[in-house]
Hints:
Low-confidence stretches: 5-11
Helix content: 10-25%
Largest sheet: 8 strands, antiparallel
Oligomer: single chain
Distance between the termini: 15 Å
Strand content: 25-35%
CATH architecture: Sandwich
Number of strands: 17
CATH class: Mainly Beta
Order of helices and strands: EEHEHEEHHHEEEEEEHEEEEEE
Number of domains: 1
Mean pLDDT: 88
Amino acid sequence: MSQSTTISGPDAIQVLPAAGVWTDPMPEAFDDQLDFFRREGFLILRRTLETAAIHQLTTELERLAQNHATLPRIREGFDLEPRQDDKRAVPTFRKIGGITELSEPFDALMRHPRVLDVLHALMGPHIQLWRDVCMMKPARVGREKPWHQDSSYWPWEPMNLISAMTALDDATPENGCLQVIPRTHTEALQHYGKELMVDIDQAMQARTRYVPLQAGDTLLFHSLLLHASEPNRSDHDRRVCIISYKNDRVDYIGKGEEKPCPTVSNRPGQTWSPDQALPS
Length: 280
């Protein structure tokens, strides 16, 4: 991997515009999709949700925001966006955690068959939930997220988790769609610890790509893939639901007692070879 620097603090690094936009079509054949993910570290599943399902989920987000004071705080809970001009009755949220336990439609999204088919082929017969959160990225307010690898925060080894990011709005370069550096999931972990970000060098910056999504698309990405996002500078929200999955072959290396991870899907007869699954 090119030279990079680890910097502590979420505001220490500015995310520059990506060097390009990922425009290559996604493979359609299932085996080709698996090969693409193993090679690039991400995969877009187009139109996993139709318009009616998207509307149901965005309506659920509005319900949760309106009733947040009476709802339990699960996992990451309700995280507010700081905005000085916000005097509305419903606060502006940065993220809502534990979303699959707060909403049946989001629980169903977690179990989407197209997503699970890919996960089982890559991760094996037993899929568990690690993280479930909606990132709101509101218009003109949503902050940037500097370059990082999810596995630097997560207490699991091997670092072979997969996240499924489903777009509830069109995600564009203007409203802060994800940037990625393809193939970095096969390289070394670049940083460790809470709030540590990666300051990429010019060679790595040249490899950065925007990954735009249409509402209803799902982006799968490896927990070692370097990714970031710019602030939302547009007049349009960029809401996404991110569900992160693990299998039962990773070991807990965190501090304190291990918390159980709920089973999402179990397919005992799943054809799967660890040697042909995720890179370690």
